[in-house]
Automatic annotation (TrEMBL):
CDD domains: PAS. This is histidine kinase. SUPFAM superfamilies: ATPase domain of HSP90 chaperone/DNA topoisomerase II/histidine kinase (SSF55874), PYP-like sensor domain (PAS domain) (SSF55785). Residues 207-259 form the PAC domain.
């Protein structure tokens, strides 16, 4: 057996280089025996040099099928004097590894192939990362296909855009963003989109916009886009990645919903006007006292103002502070400084918004006539907070407390306003109400569950 190393491995500096490289390196003779192995290969095999040199592929631990395949490749290099590249799985002391290898001829002085040099790189981790990246890409394509979204990247300066994933899209080349916008963006949306782009680039923040885009069917469709900056380790923006979704159907439904709400609000106002007219005629004929008529009109007005608040938000809900400030309208004539209003931002669904509006209106009206606001130095404190307990819905706890007014005497009977406050909130909101007529001033504690509402 000729174990003399080839000239490339026999040279001191060359062999030192092979011994220091992390890649696996070896030489094979025509009988497929290893005649040289560097330190990295010996460590990968878990064997001393004496148990490697002179051994065949089978003896080195290769499976019969793999040994036969690599043996055939070594023969091919000997016969053609040409390099050959491939990858294979190898079972060794570290378990199954994936090797990327190159087989190259080692030529003698006369030009004949003296040996075959193999350089082997362990690419197990790299291959695993590539597999993960491919799976993520397939998953991303599936998500985009399922959502009908188009995902794309933009150059750092937004000059070019390249679609990455989208229905019917297959690796298109980058295109000029400005040319695309000039051809497809609705003329009325150019200024607004340009302003949003300039702001996102200047502040390196998220770009969000809805605009009309000329589609292949010759019609403008509403699209919603969101683009985020991608930063490198140096903190600089290296590219932008965005997603665009066709929201034409949603916009059409929103337009239809607005028309329906406008019609509903119109009818509600007409109905309230009819109720008011009927009440005036009824009170006039029955000889009801003036105070009763005024109370009825005030309650009807409070209901109308509650509806106006909800109309402004398209019946999505209202902020609690707006409800409070609207409901205490009857007391505003005494000066806003007579009220102490304090509490966090709370968004109310339509039902609790109307119920609290009517209850607070009754409390304010009572304070103006008989309570703290009927005296020069009287004040009303309205405070609220939100309580959260694990596993239970959030609850709103609101307190109405009067002070500085005349001494309070508990009424002998409960009037309509009192019943509206106590029973109305319990019935409408499944809440708890404690109305107390203390000598120092009326107080009301309201505890109701908070129903999540959209702030759109």
């Amino acid at each position: 057996m000729d174990t003399t190393p080839a000239p490339a491995a026999g040279c001191g500096p060359a062999e030192a280089l092979l011994e220091s490289t992390p890649d696996l390196a070896c030489l094979f003779d025509r009988q497929h025996r290893c005649i040289y192995a560097n330190r990295a290969l010996l460590e990968a095999l878990g064997r001393p040099r004496a148990e490697v040199i002179g051994r065949s592929l089978l003896e080195l631990g290769y499976a019969p099928r793999d040994a036969a395949m690599h043996g055939s490749e070594i023969d091919q290099v000997f016969a053609t004097a040409r390099r050959l590249r491939g990858d294979a799985r190898f079972h060794g002391p570290r378990g199954e590894r994936i090797h990327d290898y190159i087989l190259a001829p080692v030529l003698a002085a006369d030009g004949s192939v003296q040996a075959v040099a193999a350089t082997i790189r362990d690419v197990t981790e790299r291959t695993a990362h590539e597999d993960v990246a491919r799976r993520n890409e397939r998953r991303l394509r599936a998500i985009a296909s399922a959502s009908s979204s188009v995902i794309y990247r933009l150059d750092p300066d937004w000059s070019r855009v390249q679609v990455l994933v989208g229905p019917g899209v297959e690796n298109p080349p980058p295109l000029s963003r400005l040319e695309l916008q000039a051809e497809h963006l609705h003329p009325d949306d150019h200024a607004r989109v340009a302003h949003a782009v300039a702001r996102a680039r200047e502040e390196t923040t998220v770009f969000e916009a809805e605009y009309r885009w000329l589609r292949g069917d010759g019609r403008y469709h509403w699209l919603a886009s969101r683009v985020v900056p991608v930063r490198g380790d140096d903190g600089r923006v290296h590219e932008w990645v965005g997603a665009t979704t066709d929201v034409e159907d949603r916009r059409r439904q929103e337009t239809h919903q607005r028309l329906l709400l406008d019609e509903l609000n119109h009818r509600v106002k007409n109905t309230l006007a009819v109720v008011q007219s009927i009440a005036v005629q009824t009170f006039a004929r029955t000889g009801a006292d003036r105070q009763a008529v005024e109370r009825f009109h005030a309650r009807l007005l409070a209901l109308a103002k509650g509806h106006e608040l909800l109309t402004a938000s398209r019946w999505n809900g209202t902020w609690l502070r707006d409800v409070v400030e609207t409901a205490i309208g009857p007391g505003m004539g005494h000066g806003l400084e007579r009220f102490l209003i304090d509490g966090p931002r709370v968004w109310l669904a339509p039902r609790p918004s109307l119920a609290l509006s009517m209850a607070l209106h009754e409390l304010c009206t009572n304070a103006v006539k008989y309570g703290a606001l009927s005296a020069p130095g009287g004040t009303v404190a309205i405070r609220w907070e939100v309580h959260e307990e694990g596993g239970h819905p959030r609850r709103l706890r609101l307190e109405w407390r009067e002070s500085g007014g005349p001494a309070v005497v508990e009424p002998q009977r409960r009037g309509f306003g009192t019943r509206l406050v106590e029973q109305g909130l319990r019935h409408d909101l499944d809440g708890e109400v404690v109305l107390a007529f203390e000598a120092s001033g009326v107080s009301c504690h309201i505890d109701v569950p908070l129903v999540e509402a959209s702030t759109a």
